[in-house]
Design goal:
single chain; 324 residues; Alpha-Beta Plaits; six-stranded antiparallel sheet; globular
């Protein structure tokens, strides 16, 4: 399985004072959805499901994709929608208030077929700048977009350079019978809250098999609906059973509460999750392809807001942290 993606950094400049919530992903994503529909929607219907153009509409694909007929291959009848083909990663800085002329940024990850919709994302954030952001709807302007060390778009010239997509390969077949890996520790640091459910309950103690179960499903669905749609040859049941053998050694995860206002539901939604570090011990090496892919594509609920972002810490960093 090969999943393509593009990671881009959008630089913005405040035109008016902007006040953002503690978790900035809430304001960015919420406003983005409204602006996207304003730009892309032709019919202006309330729901995409009744629209004749839903199969050709950028907004419907990006925000309101639903399982197509025949998707029962992945047991999609249990789920309301498929994963979005994008992730917004807000800045991690504590700064919440921006005065006119101050600059800030966010990262955007486009996944698979979602890469083709980059021009829409640019237009939409230009529109969002006019609509305003945060509590006081402070206006901003899009200055430029970077991919790695290269500027690919500027507000001055409004031309978009073509760039190559990146990709990550996950083995489609793993012979677990010939796995002679030794037990080792792995520490995962969640940069943003991770919100997972197990047996329909929110997870407050993140067992390794729960993390792997969610990673397997997310990566599989992303590839099925936004990638090449090929089904990998993983033995899900066997992988999850093996993941149960990996145990928690140190648990530094703590619950982090935040909320956002839903314009569609006209109410405030609580979207708390676990944040911090957790160390597992066991035969963790066999799961590293999925763990490394999750560093890019996140895991859990509300990943479009930037939730579920984590890094797998190198061993020397764990030792250093322990000694300090």
């Amino acid at each position: 399985m090969v999943l393509k993606y593009q990671k881009l950094r959008f630089y913005l400049e405040a035109i008016e004072p902007i006040a953002l919530p503690p978790y900035k992903g809430s304001a960015l994503r919420g406003g983005f959805g409204v602006a996207f529909k304003k730009i892309a929607c032709v019919i202006k219907k309330n729901t995409c499901s009744e629209c004749l153009l839903k199969d050709q509409c950028a907004y419907a694909y990006v925000f309101e994709t639903s399982p197509p007929e025949g998707a029962s291959i992945l047991k999609m009848e249990k789920y309301e929608s498929i994963p979005h083909p994008f992730i917004l990663e807000p800045p991690k800085e504590n700064k919440r208030f921006y005065e006119p002329k101050e600059k800030f940024y966010f990262d955007l990850i486009l996944i698979g077929k979602g890469i083709n919709y980059l021009p829409y994302f640019i237009l939409v954030f230009s529109e969002l700048g006019q609509m305003g952001l945060g509590r006081g709807k402070g206006k901003f302007k899009l200055l430029e977009i970077w991919n790695k060390n290269m500027i690919i778009y500027t507000n001055e010239f409004k031309t978009l350079k073509k760039i190559e997509s990146e990709s990550i390969e996950i083995p489609e077949y793993i012979n677990l019978d010939e796995d002679n890996s030794e037990e080792e520790e792995v520490t995962i640091e969640f940069k943003t809250p991770v919100r997972l459910k197990y047996n329909r309950d929110l997870v407050v103690r993140l067992e390794f098999f729960i993390l792997i179960t969610n990673l397997l499903r997310r990566l599989n669905l992303l590839n099925y609906f936004h990638g090449d749609a090929r089904q990998p040859g993983w033995d899900h049941k066997q992988l999850i059973e093996l993941a149960r053998e990996v145990k928690i050694k140190n648990n530094g995860l703590r619950w982090y509460d935040w909320e956002r206002y839903s314009g569609r539901q006209k109410t405030r939604l609580k979207l708390g999750g676990l944040k911090g570090r957790i160390t597992y011990v066991g035969k963790t090496g066999r799961f590293m392809p999925w763990l490394k892919a999750g560093e890019i594509f996140h895991v859990g609920k509300a990943t479009a807001f930037g939730l579920g972002e984590y890094v797998v810490l190198p061993h020397n960093e764990k030792i250093k942290d322990r000694e300090s």
